[in-house]
Amino acid sequence: MGAKQKALIITDGTESIMSIAKTISDELADFSVSICPAENLDGTDLLSAELFFLGCENSGPSSFAYIEEMLSHINLASRKCGVFSVNEKPLEYLRCILKDSEADFGEPLFITDANNHADNVKAWIREKSLTGR
After folding, report:
1. Where are the alpha helices (DSSP H) in 28-131?
2. What are the pLDDT digits (tens) for 45-92?
3. Among 9, 57, 90, 101, who pairs with 76 as Cys (CB 3.0-4.6 Å)?
């Protein structure tokens, strides 16, 4: 059996977003998953991931400056991406920074209750076929 595909979850490091990231990671049993705060992101981590996620609590966190710049210069057309937040405005921000990269992203995941989100995450991953299953 070959090596597992890689998945990367990039977050702003806030408690609510990290909690959702952990749940996403738990749902990706067929992947080798890394959760990375945006300020610690190495571009090669993103380039080696077949699947990636972006999550932040507020629009335009300073920790996302590097990823914003990187996404404006690389083509990720063959990669699936999911975006998630506990607020609506950051979802539009995340979709906007992804636009130039041509990553395949669908409907974002808007979590209204950061303490009770597991079922929503499971359904979102399944419905959006993010894992290719």
Report:
1. 43-47, 65-71, 88-98, 118-127
2. 998 999 999 999 999 999 999 999 999 999 998 899 999 999 999 999
3. 101
Decide which of 3.40.50.720, 3.40.50.360, 3.40.50.300, 3.50.50.60 is the CATH code for 5-127.
3.40.50.360
Three-class SS of residue 14? coil
The reported pTM is: 0.92
At 3-19, the pLDDT tens digits run 789 999 999 999 999 99
CA angle 13, 117, 47 (to 5 degrees): 45
Quick one: tokens of 9? 């979850």
- Of 132, 120, 92, the C-alpha closest to 24 is 120
